[in-house]
Design a protein that fits this description.
By secondary structure, the chain is mainly α. The chain has one domain (2-121). 54% of the residues lie in helices and 7% in strands. Bound molecules: zinc ion (2 copies).
Length: 123
């Protein structure tokens, strides 16, 4: 988590300074970082169905996917407060059904993710 925190701070700083023109590469990096953070917080458990990740990846880490509660395509922010780590099944479900009750639940989870991350930042 220490490394993620540092990357996040760097990212915030570079966004604030606005010196760098946002490139697709940077967006990708940011997306990956936000994903890594919420996955770390989720700790191998899907944040929607609360089941353990279905398998571990080649790095022996539980496989979860990062989902943006407000889709990026709909103007959602690529930040921790809008991101959740969910299993591939739930992820598919979100994109196919996009059920209001699930969105509501995930909004709360994403907010909690931000709180947890802020707590990590303090420690
Ligand atoms: Zn799930
Ligand atoms: Zn998604």
């Amino acid at each position: 988590m220490e490394k993620l925190k540092k990357s996040y701070e760097t990212l915030k700083k570079s966004t604030r300074e606005k010196k760098v023109i946002t490139t697709t590469t940077q967006n990708k990096e940011r997306k990956k970082l936000i994903g890594d953070i919420v996955k770390e917080i989720a700790n191998g458990v899907c944040q929607l169905c609360n089941q353990p990740a279905p398998f571990v990846n080649k790095d022996q880490r539980p496989y979860l996917e990062c989902h943006h509660v407000q889709w990026l395509e709909r103007g959602g922010a690529d930040d921790v407060y809008n991101a959740v780590a969910i299993c591939p099944n739930c992820h598919k479900k979100m994109h196919i059904l996009d059920l209001e009750q699930d969105v509501k639940k995930l909004e709360k989870v994403a907010n909690k993710n931000m709180t947890s991350f802020n707590e990590y930042k303090k420690s």
